[in-house]
Design a protein that fits this description.
This protein is α/β, with parallel strands linked by helices and 138 residues long. Helix content is 49%, strand content 16%.
Length: 138
């Protein structure tokens, strides 16, 4: 719950100020987990889905005022919080994620997946029929 509500409260306050300024950028960090409800992390995924939908609405609200709102959807990131997790090819370093965020702002993207390959992984996962998906151990 806090993964979503705290962000919504803070971003709403910031958005009001940037709307008055008529320029600025907001980066909202969601997660690939918000793209599909999975049995392994559905409460976290639900919070991140809320964040993505909120960012989409905020982006639409602020666009006429010259304010960019970018949704950032990282996959697995190697941080102190995930230090005990086994790492593999799908993991990213924080520096690489930061570089992708800067690049996304420079290119005025609405949504970025970082690393880039998560866009295609999630595209596949989103298109698996529910009758099949609920049997998978994801």
């Amino acid at each position: 719950r806090d993964n979503g509500l705290n962000l919504v409260s803070l971003a709403t306050l910031i958005a009001s100020q940037l709307q008055v300024q008529q320029h600025g950028q907001i980066g909202i960090i969601g997660s690939v987990a918000g793209d599909r409800g999975r049995q392994s992390n559905y409460t976290y995924g639900a919070a991140k889905a809320m964040v993505a939908t909120f960012a989409q609405g905020l982006r639409n609200r602020l666009q006429p005022f010259g304010v960019q709102v970018m949704t950032i959807k990282p996959g697995f990131v190697d941080t102190p919080m995930t230090a005990e997790f086994p790492k593999g090819a799908l993991w990213a370093q924080p520096e690489d994620v930061a570089a992708a965020i800067i690049k996304g702002f420079d290119r005025r993207r609405d949504v970025i997946y970082t690393p880039w390959f998560w866009r295609y992984i999630m595209l596949i996962i989103q298109h698996i029929p529910e009758t099949i998906f609920k049997r998978l151990k994801l």
